[in-house]
Amino acid sequence: MPRAVAGPEIERLIQLLARLPGLGPRSARRAALHLVRKRAELMEPLSTAFIDALAKIEVCGTCGNVDTRDPCTVCADPTRDRLILVVVENVADLWALERAGVVAGRYHVLGGTLSPLDGVGPDDLNLKKLVSRVHEGETKEVLLALNATVDGQTTAHYVTDLLRDTGVKVTRLAHGVPVGGELDYLDEGTLAAAIRQRTPF
Length: 201
Ligand code: ZN
Fold this sequence. Notes:
Strand order of the largest sheet: 4-3-5-6
Helix content: 40-55%
Bound molecules: zinc ion
Number of domains: 2
Strand content: 5-15%
Mean pLDDT: 93
Distance between the termini: 63 Å
CATH architecture of the largest domain: 3-Layer(aba) Sandwich
Largest sheet: 4 strands, parallel
Number of helices: 8
Number of strands: 6
Structural class: alpha/beta
CATH topology of the largest domain: Dna Topoisomerase Vi A Subunit, Chain: A, domain 2
């Protein structure tokens, strides 16, 4: 057991920082030291930001996104295309698509994927709300932006069946060669999907 180099308050800070994704014990120590050094410019505003956000975080009753308001910022944005509804597994996927900035539609967060092996069934996902949104709204296209995994694709098929009688167009993301990817390095499944989904040039 290494000897403690700081008081219990700072050691606790390091332990908590080390639980963040992407931070191991070494970088947590470095981050903690940085915070301690910059306590006025960084540590104090950060702790206030934590408390402010913590008091307000809630799940959007419309789409399942996590925000500090309900309806969330995305749902409340009047400039978004109301004809397209993008279905994602989780909030991280919503943020990833927003970073890409290609679809300015609205979203629906399922909160997971169907996974019989892990005991995740349709009732565990935000599916009823999805069906009612499609029924009552102006949605013309539902884009299933789900992971290209077995569970993701099982979920995509399930949602497609669920929306069959609504008359909306159901689309999914293309599978294929990543931008900047070299064919030689791709697995056979990805190459086969890319060839099946080839597009006119
Ligand atoms: Zn929302």
